[in-house]
């Protein structure tokens, strides 16, 4: 049963479009807002199409889509009750500022993004109007205007995709409401550990996104090269140690024990074998790793990356507490140079480092 709430998806990328399309399919009142004219035009003309790699039939829903320049039209309508912020991290501040004036008095924002952007959102609308939601192992891509593809089937009970949380950790009615909206897409839960869930997803992204961006490779192919996989383990190890030092707790990272990843990245032979065996087994499954992480997609499209908000963020937070993250610093520099056009994407950026 639909909630009857007015919902905005602010910037209709892969995750926002995927979740929003399922909400529309369930009868929710959703307005999609984006700054890519061809995408807005395609959504309004042909609807939003969602496909999956396996097990799920494709579907298309008719949607309401606005270009950011059209958002002022909303002033004539009822304000939004819920705004899902789905931008890249570097666009969070302006997007939140833009939607703020169109929120209902008791309306609120939900960060449905990579990275840790709740503080930025709260700085604009207030902590009382800020929630977070992690999309874990969702593997979606916006491959062309109006068409979003998931490189998997539904996770369902095998893995909880959406983890919704209040910044203070209490389980509230509105967190349950957001969970219900996202559960239209796939499995969802309310967590009392938003920050731990956030950092866990951050570690996952730290281990793969930047590597894809600077090598030009998809996940499976990176995992199968020993030197790149071991470099990835080192990235994760540093991020985990910083997260632990900041006081975050998380149960797993991509279905692996975070302490084992940390030890593997630090050179513990037994831990490295366990992590290597797990990652290689995942990559060798049918369809396993046949996905280009979001930052790799951005590089292919010539878009700005989120490297400063992922690996660069680990370096920054580590410095604040006296922990170095040299592997993350190296990758941040390489990806930045590729992004600027100083280098071309190439696996040699990692394999020739001879750090592994």
Task: Give a summary of the structure in a few sentences.
By secondary structure, the protein is α/β, with parallel strands linked by helices. It folds into 2 domains: 6-191, 3-Layer(aba) Sandwich (Rossmann fold), CATH 3.40.50; 197-351, N-(1-d-carboxylethyl)-l-norvaline Dehydrogenase, domain 2. Helices cover 44% and strands 17% of the residues.
Task: Note down, in words, how this protein is organized.
It is a single chain. The protein is of the alpha/beta class and 356 residues long. The protein has two domains: 6-191, Rossmann fold (3-Layer(aba) Sandwich), CATH 3.40.50.720; 197-351, Orthogonal Bundle (N-(1-d-carboxylethyl)-l-norvaline Dehydrogenase, domain 2). 44% of the residues lie in helices and 17% in strands. The protein is built from 14 helices and twelve strands. Strands 5-2-1-6-7-8-11-12 form an eight-stranded mixed sheet, with helices on both faces. Strands 4-3-10-9 form a four-stranded mixed sheet. The chain is globular, with a radius of gyration of 20 Å. The relative contact order is 0.11.
Give a topology summary.
Blueprint: E1 6-10, H1 14-25, E2 29-34, H2 37-46, E3 48-52, E4 59-61, E5 64-67, E6 80-85, H3 92-100, E7 103-111, H4 118-125, E8 130-135, E9 140-144, E10 147-150, E11 162-166, H5 173-182, E12 188-190, H6 194-215, H7 219-223, H8 226-245, H9 258-265, H10 269-283, H11 294-301, H12 311-320, H13 326-339, H14 348-351
Parallel strand pairs: 1-2, 1-6, 2-5, 3-10, 6-7, 7-8, 11-12
Antiparallel strand pairs: 3-4, 8-11, 9-10
Helix pairs in contact: 3-4, 6-8, 6-11, 6-13, 8-9, 8-12, 9-10, 12-13
């Amino acid at each position: 049963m639909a909630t009857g709430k007015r919902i905005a998806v602010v910037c209709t990328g892969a995750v926002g479009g995927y979740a929003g399309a399922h909400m529309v399919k369930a009868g929710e009142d959703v307005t999609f807002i984006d700054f890519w004219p061809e995408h807005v035009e395609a959504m309004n003309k042909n609807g939003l199409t969602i496909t999956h790699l396996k097990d799920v039939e494709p579907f298309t829903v008719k949607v309401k889509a606005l270009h950011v320049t059209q958002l002022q039209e909303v002033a004539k309508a009822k304000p939004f009750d819920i705004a899902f912020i789905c931008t890249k991290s570097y666009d969070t501040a302006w997007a939140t500022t833009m939607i703020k004036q169109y929120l209902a008095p008791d309306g609120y924002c939900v960060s449905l993004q990579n990275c840790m952007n709740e503080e930025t959102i709260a700085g604009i609308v207030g902590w009382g109007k800020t929630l977070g939601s992690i999309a874990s192992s969702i593997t979606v891509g916006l491959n062309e205007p109006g068409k979003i593809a998931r490189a998997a089937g539904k996770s369902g009970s095998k893995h909880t995709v959406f983890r919704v949380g209040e910044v203070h950790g209490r389980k509230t009615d509105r967190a349950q409401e957001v969970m219900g909206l996202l559960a239209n897409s796939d499995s969802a839960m309310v967590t009392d550990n938003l920050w731990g869930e956030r950092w866990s997803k951050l570690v996952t992204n730290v281990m793969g996104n930047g590597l894809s961006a600077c090598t030009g490779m998809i996940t499976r192919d990176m995992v199968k090269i020993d030197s790149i996989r071991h470099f990835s383990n080192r990235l994760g190890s540093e991020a985990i140690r910083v997260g632990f030092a900041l006081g975050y707790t998380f149960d797993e990272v991509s279905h692996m024990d975070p302490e084992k990843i940390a030890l593997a990245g630090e050179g513990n032979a037994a831990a490295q074998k366990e992590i290597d065996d797990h990652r290689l087994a995942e990559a060798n499954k049918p369809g396993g790793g046949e996905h280009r992480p979001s930052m790799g997609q951005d590089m292919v499209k010539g878009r700005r990356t989120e490297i400063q908000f992922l690996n660069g963020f680990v370096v920054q937070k580590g410095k604040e507490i006296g922990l170095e993250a040299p592997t993350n610093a190296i990758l941040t520099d390489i990806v930045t140079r590729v992004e600027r056009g100083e280098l071309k994407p190439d696996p040699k950026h990692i394999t020739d480092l001879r750090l592994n």
